[in-house]
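Batch manifest, entry 17 of 40.
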Amino acid sequence: MTVTIYHNPACGTSRNTLAMIRQSGVEPVVVEYLRTPPSRDKLKELIAAMGIPVRALLREKGTPYKELGLDDPKWSDDQLLDFMIAHPILINRPIVVTPKGTRLCRPSEAVIELLDAPVGRFVKEDGEVVEAR
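Output type: structure tokens
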């Protein structure tokens, strides 16, 4: 099974998701999207595969979301994509792609449904225990 994670190593949710993937026995393709942002076409493809609106992929916390006025509904999907391309920190994470689907894995245990092998008992960084398959 090929698994790709669009990852930010500074994000606890992203680190937990990556650790669960690895605990399932898979070494994923890790795309540190702040260093290697997805192209506009790839971003559109990921959003379509997740079946979410473009706006649902915007991250507010720790980003220039407010400063850019992105809470204003006037922005079109194309304009929001432009902002995410210009400021990749606006892309919420982690996004995980597997043959079973593509998902924004928030919370991190959402990744479990995308994996073939069981994760088992997993302890998140904050001490929360996840019992999975």
